[in-house]
Amino acid sequence: ITSVTNTRKITKAMKMVAAARLKRSEDRTRAMRPYTRRLKEIISSLAGVRGMPHISLYCASKMALTAIAQALWVELAGTGVHVGILYVGITENDPDKRLLAADGSAIQVSGNPHSTQDDVAKTVLRQVRRRIRRIVMTPAGKALVTVQWLMPRVVTFLITKAQKISAGIAE
Fold this sequence. Notes:
The protein has helices spanning 2-32, 56-75, 117-130, 139-150, 152-167, and strands at residues 39-45, 82-88, 98-100, 106-108, 134-136. By secondary structure, it is α/β, with parallel strands linked by helices. The model has no long low-confidence stretch (mean pLDDT 80).
């Protein structure tokens, strides 16, 4: 009974965090409207394309950004307003950056940066100038998007297999 109660508490906390992140994303997007009548640019993560284990809340918040961009494409069609979404890989940032794990704990962002903040800024400018709807910055990200679109079950299989290998589970 205690574990059920704890699970409910964790689930409630995860829902509150996800709702807060979505609300913050919505608020930031709405706050931009007066300043960007002809432009909407959303920067997201590849977690907005495919959910990954252990960072489900982070993925949900990034997928919400993808949904907002898709909705704005329809809502603003024919108005001349450009809406773009940029999926970046691991970017140089604050070395103490943390993501919220599925269990509610903070985890360190790991991996070598694929881009600098300057690279991201230049890509945003290129996307705006050329009015490109969606850009995936990294080759690995482009492969993920393509395979996820063509063969989503293969991606699920590979992620599950990698998860088992990292956990040391033999088949």
